[in-house]
Amino acid sequence: MAELPAFESPVSTPFVSSAGVPMEPGGPDAPLTLQDVSSTTKIIVRAGPGTDACRRLSTPFTTSRMEDGVLIVGQRPDEWTLLGQGTAIETVIDGLDRSGHVSVIDGTHSRAMFRLTGADAASVLEKLCSLDWNDHMTPDGAAVSGSVARVTCDIVRNDLDGTRCYLVSCDRSYGQYLFEVILDAGQEFGISPFADPAC
User: Fold this and answer.
1) 87 phi/psi in degrees, rounded to 5
2) Is residue 162 part of a domain?
3) Is residue 22 part of a domain?
4) Structure confidence by residue, pLDDT tens digits, 105-122
5) Coil, strand or helix: which one is 132?
6) Do the beta carbons of residue 199 and residue 38 sit within 8 Å?
7) 147 and 71 in one domain?
8) pLDDT at position 198, please?
9) Parallel, antiparallel, or unpaired for β 192-194 and 32-36?
10) Which residues does 79 contact at the CB level (< 8 Å), separation at least 6?
11) For the chain, where are the E strands, in sequence order?
12) Whole-prediction pTM value?
């Protein structure tokens, strides 16, 4: 893969809510956190049915799975989003047979992504999105798309050590707005912003 320019987060710090209220950053152990993880490598693979790449990725539409440190998300029919660290992603991509109708697109710099973690994470999303966040509809591993505060987003439930967690991704141009809106929605639950150390 070609060398990319240094990543620049779409979220400015210090953190402020959309009302302009400064918010102190919390740590990873806060009960509810919103973390900017936009620097995560994001690769989009589109592969036609019957291709080797389609068989290799194999994660069904609306689900996700971990493989060798890479989260493989069946975000749309015949389209997968690969999320992880650069070297792990490269290993998966290098192992794909790209013959047939297969395309690989690096969306790292064009997509913002946030990790919303905590027992009240679903309650925050319920305030901003009309999707059903109950376990029977969006269990751990579920991948959905929807409007979050009127921004088209891809969302993956990706629980960590038994704690409810969602990855929320949108076009980079909406990143600052969406981060601030999620912070506002989470204030009643004691949300803390959490900076991505890589950003």
Assistant:
1) -65, -40
2) yes
3) no
4) 999 999 999 999 999 999
5) coil
6) yes
7) no
8) 44
9) parallel
10) 44, 45, 46
11) 32-36, 41-47, 64-67, 70-76, 79-84, 102-106, 111-118, 143-148, 151-157, 165-171, 192-194
12) 0.90
